[in-house]
Design a protein that fits this description.
Length: 321
């Protein structure tokens, strides 16, 4: 359970080997996510799977105080799920904020300008994340206060004039953008982006906004060590053996160091379920490795039995007897 490899951008890293196009992209992972467990398994012959499948999260915060920091705070899905909208540097919407992470990330990369660093160089493409009062309430004021007051990632502005001044665009652009948005909300369809769900009503008459700078970041690695349904690390079978894969004895894995569990693009929340499910399985299986018998079945005397009935007792006992 050593985690993924999204942080490591060094020469010869797993990211450089399998996704060189993402080298240099910031991440929501800490320095622990350097692929140690994956490399260890590979060194003893374990099979790797889906190593090119790396997920970008569209909303990682750019901290204006330290914009080049390689590890960034994650802006959770709830920001957009509560009604937050994304604006480009001209104050225009450009994407259905509730679309897939991969789609929203790519739209930001394609449609938004690079961030200007303090020394004048260009950084990653980025956008503005804007929440009005209703969206702030739905997201949760205590959590928002953490990002805004304790970490300093959100700025508060008043009305469309303050929003335009912060963004650096014409106020009329903001008025038109929010006017189009509230019209789309009333019709339950945005012809520009295809959005059909509108969690919060945001209009040009709103007076209080909070605004953050966000950019797509490496968030999760779907690739890693191939495992069985029993969390056993697998390797390619030797010539003449039955089956294409065999287990690496006494080696179990769970979590982001494994691959093949989430397919091409993990759904939000499923990594926690994966850790719980396969972590429990791996622990239970590992607890049996000191058993002397290596056979699947006991080699002792066998006594034939006859199954007479199966009773449906789920309601009473929680399982059939």
């Amino acid at each position: 359970t050593t985690g993924g490899f999204g942080f490591d951008h060094s020469d010869g890293s797993l990211l450089q080997q399998h996704r060189p196009d993402l080298v240099g992209v910031p991440t929501t992972n800490g320095s622990f996510a350097n692929g140690d467990g994956v490399r260890f398994g590979e060194a003893i012959g374990a099979t790797l799977i889906d190593m090119d499948k790396v997920q970008l999260h569209p909303t990682a915060f750019i901290d204006p105080k330290d914009p080049g920091n390689h590890t960034k705070y994650l802006g959770p899905e709830a920001l957009r799920g509560s009604g937050g909208i994304l604006l480009d540097q001209r104050g225009r919407r450009f994407v259905n904020e509730l679309d897939l992470r991969s789609v929203v990330s790519q739209k930001i990369l394609d449609r938004c300008d690079p961030y200007k660093m303090p020394d004048g160089t260009e950084y990653r493409p980025w956008s503005w994340c804007v929440l009005n009062d209703e969206a702030q309430d739905k997201f949760g004021r205590p959590m928002l206060n953490f990002y805004k007051d304790q970490v300093g990632l959100f700025e508060a502005v008043e009305g469309t004039k303050g929003l335009a001044q912060l963004i650096g665009c014409d106020e009329q652009n903001i008025i038109e953008t929010l006017g189009d948005y509230v019209s789309a909300l009333d019709q339950r369809f945005c012809a520009k982006t295809g959005k059909v769900v509108f969690p919060a009503r945001m209009s040009p008459t709103d007076s209080n906004f909070v605004v953050a700078r966000i950019t797509p970041c490496i968030h999760y690695c779907m690739g890693g060590l191939q495992i069985s349904s029993c969390a056993e690390v697998l390797r390619q079978s030797r010539a003449g053996a039955m089956g294409r894969r065999s287990k690496v004895r006494r080696l179990f894995a769970a979590g982001e160091c494994t691959g093949g569990v989430h397919g091409g693009n993990r759904l939000g929340g499923n990594s926690l379920a994966e850790c719980v499910v396969f972590g429990r399985i791996a622990g239970e299986r590992a607890a049996t490795i000191k058993q002397k018998d290596t056979m699947l079945l006991d080699k002792g005397d066998w006594i034939p039995v006859q199954l007479r009935e199966v009773r449906s007792t789920d309601v009473k006992y929680g399982h059939n007897t």
